[in-house]
Amino acid sequence: ASIFSIDPSFIISIIMYTWLIKVRPSAAAVATKKSKTPIRKKGKIPVAAAKKKKKVNNAAAKKKKAKKSTNLLCPDELLAAHQSGKLYSMMNGLNTNGVKDYCQQCKVPRTGAKYKIVSLLINHVERVALMSSSVRLAGNIGNDGDGDSNCDGE
């Protein structure tokens, strides 16, 4: 028995071990292979679908806004006060509940401080007055100024 004698079964086990290391892929390689396929988490949608959904929502919001802007409601007393130039003093003379009642009639948001509600309501009344004046101007088609479309001066 010499010092350098090695058991043949030991040599075979070392060869098998090195062969297994070369053949079997590492854990990192397995992880990279799995991550090549896109993983879709719950609640996440693809980018193209998200953009399409956003376009649909924007179109619906624009349609709703256009419909809302055509139906402008305003009490006659507010329009009369706006035409006489006393709308702001009239609004400041009212208490908060009175201003909120006008907001409810005009379908304007009525939450917040009184000065914010008053400014929203005044902007709404000015917009309604502008729209009604533009409709009145559109009605005067004829050159004779009587509001109808005939131009024979009768």
Structural commentary:
The chain has 154 residues and is mainly α. The model has no long low-confidence stretch (mean pLDDT 75). The protein contains seven helices and no strands.
How large is the count of helical segments?
7
Spell the H/E element sequence.
HHHHHHH
| C-alpha-based Rg, rounded | 39 Å
Query: What is the total tally of β strands?
Result: 0
Strand content: under 5%
What overall geometry do the principal axes of the alpha carbons give? rod-shaped
Which consecutive residue ranges, at least 5 long each, have pLDDT under 50? none
Give me the secondary-structure category. mainly alpha
Q: How can the largest sheet be summarized?
A: none
Terminal CA distance: 138 Å
Helix content: 55-70%
Mean pLDDT: 75
Blueprint of the fold:
Layout: H1 8-23, H2 27-35, H3 47-70, H4 76-84, H5 87-93, H6 96-106, H7 114-139
Helix pairs in contact: 4-7, 6-7
Write a brief caption for the model.
With 154 residues, the protein is an all-alpha fold. 66% of the residues lie in helices and 0% in strands. α4 packs across α7 (114-139) and α6 (96-106) runs parallel beside α7 (114-139).
List keywords for this structure.
single chain, 154 residues, mainly alpha, rod-shaped
